[in-house]
Known about the structure:
mainly beta; 7-stranded mixed beta sheet
Amino acid sequence: xxxxxxxxxxxxxxxxxxxxxxxxxxxxxxxxxxxxxxxxxxxxxxxxxxxxxxxxxxxxxxxxxxxxxxxxxxxxxxxxxxxxxxxxxxxxxxxxxxxxxxxxxxxxxxxxxxxxxxxxxx
Length: 122
């Protein structure tokens, strides 16, 4: 059974940094592309980033380009989301999910983690 567990969320001041981790079990992380999504109160879920399993191709939501970086460590079956220069608008629950591909940021997730809360506030 595929399981994904997010960690690393917390409270951070505007302009600060935070790194989220997505640990997979039940399958090799390299079998699937992995996407990060987020959902803020009162808003639709949106795709944040995606990393391919076939090569080093990555994709980002326009509003996080230049601030967020997605990476993977297949040995550890872990995908990371490095978040820099955080803004209050980044406050949301962040989820990771397996993807069929990274063709679109908001493409459907297949298997999901339960999420980790990121709060950006002074």
